[in-house]
Design the sequence.
């Protein structure tokens, strides 16, 4: 059973409770539901103050039982003093900038490889790139790259160049594989992390 608490989907998997942000792929995992709820509260309180909790590592999956969670409202330095430096704000690459960068790098490479008749499978290389993006950046970026890969193959790597043609069955199959990999790899990573955590 999944409940929504402060924009986190909280569910029990095995003997562990998992909270997944509905805004991104980040997870918080604990054997104690109360500890998980307290961590979610501290995350939101930190957003209100402009600084993350001291235990927050920035990782996409945080094992709350492996860190010390203190209710910072009760701590001696709950509010930053005037001499403290301003908290560093987390910066995340916008989807449009990431997509433009991926297109700007892959399109010339794909065109050059086909124009120079380099003996390599462009579609396979793009699929490997999508898998790497899924592992490093998560589902959203990987799905965007999967769509870009279909555009690159049809527009830059298949003659006649710089024109859109009805996709062949192999292009459709390759695009489906790319979208499936972009969707499944982050899910498998999350399930693997949860399974290892539940096994102790």
Sequence:
């Amino acid at each position: 059973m999944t409940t929504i608490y402060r924009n986190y989907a909280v569910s029990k998997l095995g003997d562990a409770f998992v909270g997944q942000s509905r805004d991104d792929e980040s997870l918080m995992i604990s054997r104690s539901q109360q500890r998980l709820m307290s961590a979610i509260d501290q995350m939101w309180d930190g957003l209100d103050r402009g600084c993350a909790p001291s235990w927050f590592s920035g990782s996409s999956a945080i094992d709350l039982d492996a860190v010390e969670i203190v209710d910072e409202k009760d701590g001696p330095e709950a509010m930053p003093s005037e001499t403290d430096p301003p908290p560093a704000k987390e910066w995340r690459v916008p989807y449009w900038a990431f997509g433009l960068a991926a297109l700007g790098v892959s399109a010339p490479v794909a065109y050059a490889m086909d124009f120079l008749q380099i003996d390599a499978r462009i579609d396979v290389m793009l699929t490997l790139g999508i898998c790497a993006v899924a592992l490093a950046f998560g589902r959203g970026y990987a799905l965007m790259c999967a769509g870009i890969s279909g555009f690159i193959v049809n527009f830059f790597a298949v003659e006649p160049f710089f024109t859109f043609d009805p996709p062949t069955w192999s292009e459709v199959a390759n695009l489906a594989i790319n979208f499936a990999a972009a969707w499944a790899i982050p899910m498998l990573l999350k399930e693997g992390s949860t399974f290892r955590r539940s096994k102790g």
Remarks:
- The CA atoms of residues 186 and 192 lie 10 Å apart.
- The two ends are 22 Å apart (CA to CA).
